[in-house]
Amino acid sequence: MKAAYLTALRRIELREAPQPAIRRDDDVLLDIDTVGVCGSDMHYYRAGRIGEQIVQYPWIVGHECAATVLAAGPAAAHLAPGRRVAVDPLVWCGRCDQCLAGNIHTCREQVFLGCPGQLAGSLVERLVMPAACCFPIPEAMTMTRGALVEPLSIALWAARLGAVPNGATVGILGAGPIGLCVLACVKHAAACTVYQTDLLDNRLALAGRLGAGWTGNAARGDVTGDILAAEPLGLDVAFECVGKAETINQCLRLVKPCGLVVIVGIPEEDTVPFEMNEMRRKEIRVQNVRRQRHCVQPAIELLAGGEIDLDALVTHEFAFDDVAAAFELVADYRDGVVKAMVRIGE
After folding, report:
1. pLDDT band at 338 (very low <50, low <70, confident <90, very high)
2. I need a labelling partner for 314 at 20 to 30 A (CA). Which of 86, 149, 194, 332 fits?
3. Are 7 and 108 found together in one domain?
4. Quick one: average pLDDT of 323-344?
5. What mean pLDDT comes out for the span 320-329?
6. What CATH number is attached to the domain comprising 11?
7. Which range, of 40-49, 69-78, 321-330, averages the lowest pLDDT?
């Protein structure tokens, strides 16, 4: 079968890979249809790492995917061939203290699709995953929406951690796919005022269409000053969806005393400096987001029921043979790209 391998920085190649096989009773063999290109893929593509997770070439990336069941082990008989599924890329052990407490996202033995040293990614024609990671989607749901379930589930978990009430003032720094998914979840959860920033006008325009009450381009002005001029007491909650020290500390300046900063973005660096004086004087709470916890099925239901519509995020689609072009487009933010999808199937 064909698979897309990272073979060096900013180089991705289609190569032959071994056919996967069912080995465990709960294994499911999947025919991959659609894979989303994610920001974390870009860290591996441009920098070869996220913190201590360093790519050893060649390596298969990708984790946002929707697929069709080809076969299943005896313990996964409910996933019959032909069933269409959204895939949770996190495989947990089910035995550690975290799993037993319901915190599968912080499983001590977890492995993740496309993560160096863990599981090879989903940019392949076929993949084997545990049944617990395969969530049936309605027949009416497109595979594109099925692949959007994974980033939406992360945003849904972030919004739950942020616990935004009606009437709150909210900042979202970053209007890439995750920032826009957070916006959709926050606006679905509460009647709130959202201030959203980014460096790209096309993404800010999309944020406005999805419900942001104010948008600002940080490349062209003092967005922190502008937001605080509109909200002189500060914001209740700020979501950092970029993964940069600059925007993390911008969130600290934006929130009011005893406010909350939710860090959703993933920094490439091992350490990020915080403006501790700002944090201490205002007694700011900082909440990190580790993927998601039990939000895949709710995300499917939100998309299937039309309560959240993310179709506008998908700006580009590529055939599997053109996967290298997809990564280059996203890496350089070209042609107004927001979300690129790779079609593995015919």
Report:
1. very high
2. 194
3. yes
4. 96
5. 97
6. 3.90.180.10
7. 40-49
223-230 vs 245-254: helix crossing angle, rounded to 10: 20
Please state, in angstroms and as integers, the Cα–Cα distance from residue 39 to each residue in 61, 81, 318, 333, following that order: 12, 32, 17, 11
- 304-310 long-range contacts, CB within 8 A, separation 24+: 304/137, 304/138, 304/140, 304/141, 304/145, 307/188, 308/152, 308/184, 308/185, 308/188, 309/184, 310/145, 310/148, 310/152, 310/180, 310/181, 310/184
Q: Residue 337: which residues within 8 A CB-CB, separation 6 or more?
A: 315, 316, 329, 330
Same domain, 187 and 71: no
The neighbour count for residue 217, using CB atoms within 10 Å, is 15
Write out the two tokens for 299: 């995300």
Q: From edge to edge, which strands make up the β-sheet containing 11-16?
A: 11-16, 2-8, 59-60
d(CA 184, CA 155): 8
For the question of whether the overall pTM of this predicted structure is more than 0.70, the answer is: yes
Tokens of 64: 């946002």
The domain total for the chain is 2
List Cβ neighbours of 270 (8 Å cut-off, separation of 6 or more).
Answer: 51, 52
Planar angle of CA 129, 105, 198, nearest 5 degrees: 105
Q: Say what the pLDDT of residue 270 is.
A: 79
- Same-domain status, 284 and 157: yes
Give the structural domain span for 273: 153-288
Instruction: Say if residue 58 is preceded by a cis peptide, omega within 30 of 0.
Output: yes
Judge whether residue 269 has pLDDT over 90. no
Same domain, 8 and 130: yes
Packed helices 201-210 and 177-189: angle between N→C axes, nearest 10 degrees: 20
Provide the H-helix boundaries in the chain: 39-46, 97-100, 143-162, 177-189, 201-210, 223-230, 245-254, 276-282, 296-304, 323-331
Nearest to 292 by CA among 76, 117, 64: 64
CATH number at residue 162: 3.40.50.720
CA–CA separation, 57 vs 287, rounded Å?
A: 33
